[in-house]
Design goal:
Elements (H helix, E strand, L loop, with lengths): L2 H15 L3 H7 L1 E3 L2 H15 L12 E3 H9 L9
Antiparallel strand pairs: 1-2
Helix pairs in contact: 1-2, 1-3, 1-4
């Protein structure tokens, strides 16, 4: 995982929700509602031109490191665009 990928994920989470990026980075995760979740996943997929295979699940906790691993293709089951 690169620092740039982590920054992109944190920025996307913060831009979509209005939460403080430093607080998101420190916590390492963000719990969101259904609408924010879909918007964030769609935005990350568009930024990275990858399918992250996250829309089918019911979990609405977005973990920064897990998102970074999916984007970089290091997560098991990560989609490939």
């Amino acid at each position: 995982m690169t620092a740039a990928t982590r920054l992109l994920v944190v920025k996307c989470l913060a831009d979509e929700t209005g939460e403080d990026p430093e607080a998101i980075a420190a916590a390492g995760h963000l719990d969101v509602g259904d609408r924010d979740y879909v918007n964030i996943v769609n935005r990350l997929e568009a930024f990275t031109d990858r399918t992250l295979d996250l829309l089918a699940g019911g979990n609405r906790r977005l973990v920064v490191d897990d998102l970074c691993a999916r984007i970089t293709g290091t997560a098991r089951g990560a989609g490939h665009g």
